[in-house]
Structure formats: C-alpha cells, structure tokens
C-alpha cells in the first residue's frame, strides 16, 4: 500500500499537469499563481529527496524544475508589480513602464513553452518517481521533525531581516512535510501550525514588496533615465517605502509574539 508521502507525490504530479492545462486554457493570474504554488510544493519534495539520495541521482530533476519555476516567476513578478501599481493608483507609471504589453508578451512566451514544460515535467517525474518509491516511510517523518526543531531553534534567536525569506522557505517545507506524514486535516492539530502559517504569510507579503523595490532600483540604475519616469518613480518609491515599513513591522510583531510550544509531532 502507498505511504502518505507517495500519495502526496502522486497528487502533486496530477495537480502540476492540471495547473499547466489551466494556464494554457485561461492565461489567468490565478492559474499562474496556483501553478507556482504547486511547483514550490514539488520543489520541497525534491529538497527532501536531495537529503536522502546521492546528488547525482537528483541533480537533473533540480535543474529541470527550476527552469519552469524561473520562467513562471518572471511573469508572476511583473503581475505583482502591476497589482501594486493599480492598488496604489499609479496608472501613469504603469503606462510609462509599458507593463501591460510586457505581461501580454511574457504570457504569450510562457504559453508557447507549455508543451516544452510538460515534456520537462515528465523528465522530472522519470527521475523522482523511482526515488519516491524507494523511500522508506520513516524518512519523511524524520525530515518533518528535523525541520520543526530547526524552526524553533532559529525562532529563539534574533532572526535577521536578511534571513526572513530563507526562513519562510523552511516554514513552507515543514508545512508541506506535515502532509506527507498525516492527512491534510491533521495540520491544524499541530499546535504551532497557525502561528507559523501567519508568520510565513506576513514574510511573503513583505517579500513581494522587496521584489518591487529591486525592480525600481534596477530602473533607477539605468543611465539617461527619462525625467517623467524619474518623477513618477520617485513618488512610487515613497509609497513603497511606507508599505514596506508597515509589512516589516507586522513580521517583527509576529517574531516577538509568545508562540505556543508543542512537544508532539
């Protein structure tokens, strides 16, 4: 009988192909976001397998899955910027940047590459499937426990802002790993789950703005920047800075909260 980890892997494979089909069918922001979430979950599986098997057995799968994730990420980041500009009521800057045209072009390229991405995913499955079948059912639980210990140990220290994004990745790996060992309904029985979920969401919201900040900084670094663009960009950066301060404050508040302590799971 298949282990919970093997069942989880099979569901990820199914969802990845379903999400690619949904993106192909609708080209919607939601479908792309869902695809990236599934890719992140699959990357967590690969990260775990990397801790169990020799590097040469998993190296190819890592490289292939990253190629899809990076291309989807480029489009997603442009969509994040567009959403922020619209929420901040800055249509002029959106127009000057030609964001709508850039997104449409990037969507077109991604859609053209979907057959290639499906083929790439099949190659990843060819690598990972046999490894998942080989994996002892105890190893996913040990991995989950190890991640939780590391999360709690880091939380007791002062986590530097430069470490927030990587800390969030570890939280997401742990949250996914819970589902490898138990049914999805069990995740809320984990006394720390709600706290870590709120924390990773807050860090994720903060990091979305860091991505936009980096985008603006790259434009500012260009030579002979247009004066009209410079003016709109400077105004946007002031608003962004205020937003970043608010989201940074939310993360720091959560990091300083008294978190429930569990001895189980």
From TrEMBL:
Coiled coil: none annotated. Residues 8-251 form the CHAD domain. Transmembrane segments: none annotated. Pfam families: CHAD. InterPro entries: CHAD_dom, CHAD_dom_sf. This is CHAD domain-containing protein. It comes from Hydrotalea sandarakina.
């Amino acid at each position: 009988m298949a282990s919970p980890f093997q069942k989880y892997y099979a569901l990820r494979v199914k969802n990845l192909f379903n999400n690619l089909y949904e993106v192909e069918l609708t080209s919607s922001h939601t479908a792309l976001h869902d695809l990236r979430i599934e890719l992140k979950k699959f990357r967590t599986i690969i990260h775990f397998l990397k801790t169990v098997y020799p590097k040469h057995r998993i190296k190819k799968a890592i490289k292939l899955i990253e190629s899809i994730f990076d291309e989807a990420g480029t489009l997603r980041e442009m969509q994040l910027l567009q959403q922020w500009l619209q929420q901040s009521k800055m249509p002029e800057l959106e127009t000057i940047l030609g964001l709508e045209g850039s997104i449409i072009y990037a969507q077109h390229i991604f859609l053209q590459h979907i057959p290639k991405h499906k083929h790439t995913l099949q190659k990843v499955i060819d690598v990972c499937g046999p490894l998942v079948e080989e994996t002892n059912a105890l190893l996913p639980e040990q991995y989950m426990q190890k991640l939780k210990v590391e999360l709690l140990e880091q939380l007791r220290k002062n986590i530097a802002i430069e470490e927030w994004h990587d800390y969030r990745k570890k939280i997401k790996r742990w949250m996914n790993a819970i589902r490898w060992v138990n049914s999805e309904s069990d995740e809320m029985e984990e006394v720390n789950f709600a706290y870590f979920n709120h924390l990773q969401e807050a860090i994720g919201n903060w990091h979305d703005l860091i991505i936009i900040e980096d985008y603006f900084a790259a434009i500012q670094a260009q030579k002979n920047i247009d004066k009209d663009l410079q003016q709109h960009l400077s105004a946007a950066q002031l608003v962004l800075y205020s937003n970043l301060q608010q989201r940074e404050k939310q993360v720091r508040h959560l990091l300083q909260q008294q978190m429930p302590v569990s001895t189980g799971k």
